[in-house]
Amino acid sequence: MCPQHDDCSTRLTKFSGRPQPDEFSPEERSLLLRLAHEAIAATLDQREISLAPPSEHLAEPRGAFTTLYYRGGLRGCVGYVFPVTPLYRTIAESARGAAFDDSRFSPITRGESLELQVSLSVLLPPQPIQAHQIEIGRHGLLISLGPYRGLLLPQVPVENGWGRIAFLEQTCRKAGLPLNAWQAGAKLEAFTAEVFADPK
Asked: Biggest alpha carbon distance in the chain?
């Protein structure tokens, strides 16, 4: 596993300017989603798969998260914030992590694996941000103070109906910090992502 591992479709855009076109083609999206499923299946079968990126684009280092749903409920979410390995490998490793290493859940069973829905979030690098600049549905948050760090993806406040303050407080909670740590010296960083998932 690469460093900066974290447990955790509207297209999200860069911090400023007009909405950007999708970075990943429908073919690339399908390939990455299939890879996530195959990485989980291969782990269950105790076999190896090739992690050699099939294109230069998918060989670019990127941060990414894999979120797993089973029968409509969250079943695991693991990813890497910072771009330290090729995206193709990051997707496979985060899929395995979400299926088997998310401490909030028991490992995925073979039966469950047949019904999993995968959602992928490919991140742009985090950038410093002021609290009043955070846009719900557009920004994910990374809050850190000393050894404590918490991250929530851009879709989380939308799914939970949170406003900006609740989003900040819940990211502090994820970090194991007081809810007001975002006002008391914690470092705030935001990121955007392109999010895509299996058809429902």
From this structure: 48
Beta strand residue intervals within the chain, DSSP E:
5-7, 63-70, 73-80, 116-123, 127-128, 140-145, 148-152, 187-191, 193-197
Place of tokens 């955070």: 134
pLDDT tens track for 96-128? 999 999 999 999 999 999 999 999 999 998 999
Structural domain boundaries of the chain?
5-14+24-124, 127-192
CATH class of segment(s) 5-14+24-124: alpha beta
Per DSSP, the three-state class of 169 is helix
Complete edge-to-edge strand list for the sheet that includes strand 73-80: 5-7, 73-80, 63-70, 116-123, 193-197
Q: 52 CB contacts (<8 Å, ≥6 apart)?
A: 88
Beta bridge partner(s), residue 197: 119
Q: What is the pTM of this model?
A: 0.81
Superfamily of domain 127-192: Hypothetical protein ph0010; domain 2 (3.30.1490.150)
